[in-house]
Amino acid sequence: MKIVFVTPYPDNSKTIAGGVAGVSYYLANALFAINAGIELSVVVPAFSGDYHISSVGPVTVHYLPVGKPLPALFANATIFRWRLFRLLRRLQPDIVHFQGLAAWGINCPVPAVFTVHGIPENNLLYSSRSFVLVQRLIMKLIERVGRRQMRDVIAISPFVLEELAGQFTGRIHMIANPVDEGYFGIERKVERPVILYGGHVVRGKNVLGLLQAFRLVARAVPNTLLRIAGSHPDAGYLIECRAFLESHRLQDKVQFLGELNLPQLQSAFAGASVVALLSFQETAPLVVAEAMAAGVPVVTSKAGGLPYMVRHGKNGFLTDTDNPEEAAGYLIRLLRDRDLNRTMGKAARSYAREQFHPRIVARKTLQVYHTRLADDGERRDN
Q: Are residues 275 and 369 in the same domain?
């Protein structure tokens, strides 16, 4: 079977820049592990540079320019899509798996599957760009067209079906995101109280809210360290975060690690007491699934699909985004109570093994491909 992913994807350094890139990378590896007969190519929407081809392990990666001078909002549904369809005619895949925007797949000439990783128009609510409301309306209209055209849709959380009710006319397949198999083999070695955050340092992730909670944690457990792993594309927001740390004399207790490659990230999880994510908007964040697979309890907001992942009081705690005192209380409990920490960590790993193990996810995904191709074959026969 010849498969093409259209998705963000990590480069050879294995630096996972974003959850969708990580999910695609883990799924690709798992598909090869369970089925040696597949041929997989990836098309990455490139926002800079010319078209070029690279290799990441057994995967051929095509970096396809999105399309200047149009803004990405319009180029994704026009220039990039036209370039993509030309490339697909050359690659001649059996099936295309879109992981990102539904706009990429409008009128796709090849049998396609679409994974709903999030609600991109809602992400714009936390953008500092101009004319956000207009951009959001345009993206919402374009994405709606793409969603309605997809005959087979993978939903990673019931949350997206609730939020986008009525926008899908095709079959719905509930399949969680996979994580790298290495997370299940992590042995935790916590040498001091460490809170780990994984993700971009942006307003929508509410990193400033996490820092406010950490200020209270640092008073109660003074030797606690907060480690922030991820890029910081919003320079202004990073300045706000650093200013908060300086004003409360916390800069020596918080480390900005930047983007980490996969071994570094797994090492960070091994040394973490708890993972914290207090985002305003999430669907099924990869960092929470990775924490669970590593056996690390989580404290997360109740935003979006997080309550479908975290069983409050069982494998982690859920808190309100605007309540740093409550978040701090849960973090302090997990830092102080080792038995509770260990029990929640075990429950989290058990849940993750059932939901996020890459081979389980890959088998389910492969079955969706076969279903889609069988349906297309019946249509041609008729």
A: no
Complete DSSP assignment for 57-116: TTEEEEEEE--SSS-HHHHTTTHHHHHHHHHHHHH--SEEEEES-GGGGTT-SS-EEEEE
pLDDT more than 90, % of the chain: 80
> Is 96 found in the same domain as 15?
yes
Q: What is the pLDDT of residues 345-368, one digit of tens each?
A: 999 999 999 999 999 999 999 999
Same domain, 82 and 201: no
Give pLDDT tens digits for 79-128.
999 999 999 999 999 999 999 899 999 999 999 999 999 888 887 777 66
Classify each residue of 157-171 as buried b or exposed e, where b means 16 or more C-beta atoms within 10 Å of its C-beta.
Answer: bebbbebbeebbebe
Average pLDDT for 54-68: 90
Is there a contact between 241 and 211 (Cβ–Cβ < 8 Å)? yes
Euclidean distance between CA atoms 201 and 289, whole angstroms: 19
216 shares a domain with 361: no
Query: Do 87 and 103 belong to one domain?
Result: yes
pLDDT tens sequence across 239-283:
999 999 999 999 999 999 998 988 999 999 999 999 999 999 999
| Residue 297 structural domain | 181-355
282 and 216 share one domain: yes
Evaluate whether 317 touches 343 at the Cβ level (below 8 Å).
Answer: no
State whether 271 and 346 are in the same domain: yes
Query: pTM, whole model, 2 decimals?
Result: 0.90
Q: Which residues pair with 6 in a beta bridge?
A: 43, 98
Instruction: State the Cα–Cα distance between residues 65 and 116, nearest whole angstrom.
Output: 22
Of 74 and 361, the one with more pLDDT: 361
Does pLDDT of 375 surpass 90? Answer: no
Under DSSP, the state recorded for 294 is T
Rounded distance, CA 207 to CA 364, Å? 34
Q: Give the number of other Cβ atoms within 10 Å of residue 85's Cβ.
A: 16
Of the chain, the end-to-end C-alpha distance in Å amounts to 23
Q: Are residues 62 and 85 in the same domain?
A: yes
Tokens at residue 65, please?
A: 């320019």
Domain count, the chain: 2
CATH code for position 21: 3.40.50.2000
